[in-house]
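We emphasize that the prediction below concerns an isolated chain of 482 residues; any contacts that depend on oligomerization or on bound cofactors are therefore not represented. The input was used exactly as deposited, without trimming of termini.
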Amino acid sequence: MDVTVEVPPGTEEATPPIESFDDMMLDAKIMMDIKFKEYDKPTPIQAQAIPIICSGRDVLGCAETGSGKTAAFSIPMIQHCLQQPEIKRGDGPFAIVMAPTRELAQQIEKEAKTFSRSSKGFKTTIVVGGTNMSEQKMDLRNGVEVCVATPGRLIDHLHQGNTNLARVSLVILDEADRMLDMGFEPQIREVMMNLPTPHQTLLFSATMPVEVEALAADYLNKPVKVKVGAVSVPTSNVAQHLEKLVDAQKVDRLCELLLEEKSEAEKFGGTLPMTVVFVERKARADEIMTLLNEEGVAAAAFHGGRSQQEREAALSDFTTGKCAVLVATDVAARGLDVKGVMHVVNLDLPRMFEDYVHRVGRTGRAGMTGRATSFYTDRDSFLVAQIKRALQDLENGNAFAFATGKEARAKEREAQKAWREGRAAEPEQAAVGGVDIIVDDKFKHMKLSASTASLTSAGGAGAAAPAGNADDAFGSDDDDDW
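Result of the prediction step, given as a C-alpha cell string:
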C-alpha cells in the first residue's frame, strides 16, 4: 500500500514510522494483548499513525477499507488512557470515539476491548441506538475510560446528565464522511464545541469531500495528514465483472452462480467462499435469503428492518461459517469489517457511484484479493458507464478520477437527470426478450412478467417502472433508516 504523510508548513516533521510494535515502547499490558491478537507487524497505516498519535498530534487520516485503521487509533487510545489519573464514579470518559452506525461502533468497541483485556479495571462502553439506554446510563455514571458512540445517542446522554466531557482529552471521529452524509454534523459540532482544552483530535475518513475538509479545518489543530492507498475508487485488488441481464433473469442467475461456486469448492473439499449479496430493499433481502436456503445455499439477511439481536445473529452466523452468504442492503456497505469476504454480488446496483465503491470495498481488504460481480439492466446504464470509466482511469494510473461527498453527488444527480431526459427523447427501441425461468410459487412475485421486463429494458431509465417494483434503481430510501 502506498503511504503518504504531510505536515502543515512551518510545523515539526512527523514522528517516523515504526517497523514493529516493540519499537513504540507501549505499555507492557498492551503488548501482551497485541501478541494475544497474533499481530506480527503493523500495517502501513498502523506503522505511520501510531507513533504520530502517541506523540500527541492531531491526525487527519484517509485510508482505504481493510487497512487496519481501527487498530491504528485503538492502540494509542488505550495507551493514552492508561497514562491518565484513575477514573472515578461520575467522571466522564478520557476518550470518545464517534462512528456513524451501531455495527461500526460495535466493531470499534470490540477492538478497544481486545487491546485492553490485560489492563485490570479498564472499562469501555458502547452508546448507540436500538439498545437498552438504562444499561448505557449505568455504565456512563459508574465511569468508563472509553466511550464509543453514535453522535445522536451520545448527545441524548449528555443532555440527560448521564455523562460529561470534563475529562475528555482524546476524541476520534471515524468514518467522518458517512456521519456527515447521515446528517450528524450538528451533533458532532455540539460535542466538539464543548470539549475541554487542550485535547487531541483524530479524524478518519474513507473519502475526503469538501464537507470533511471543512470539519477538519474547524476542529483539528495543524493535523498531520496520513493517506494510505487509493481513496474512493474501486480497489485495484478486486476483480470486477459486469453482467447485463433483464430483471427476470437476476434471481435465477444468482442461484446459478452461487451453486456453481459451491459445487466447484466441494470438489476440492472446500466450502462456498464468504459472499455478500447486495440488494436494494429490505423485503427483497429476506426473500433472497429464503430462496437461497431452499436451494441449499446457507444464507442470512442483514438490513435495517431487522432487530439489533437479529442483525448480530446474522453477522455471527456469517463470520463463524454457519452460513456462507450474507444478503444485505446498503446498511452493510460502509464500516462493516468482516475478514475473509471473497466475493461481492450486486444483485441490484445502487443508485450512486460512491455507494458502489463502498459495496465493492467489503472484499479485497487488508491486501487480500477479491471479486465483485454486478448484474445490471438498461436502466443502470448511467452508473455502469461511470464504473467502466473509473476502472479505465484506475488502469491508466489515475486513482482519484472521481470526487465524493454531497457536492459531487449533487452534480451526479444533475448529470443523471440530463441523461434520463436524453434517453427519454430517443426513439423507442425494440424490446429485449427475457427467458423462461422455473420459480417456486412462493417466489413468483419476484419474477417480472415478460411485458414488464420488455418495457423496463426498452425504456431504460426514462421508462416509468410499475408501482412497487422491488428493483426500481432510483426508488425508496427506506434502507437509509439506521
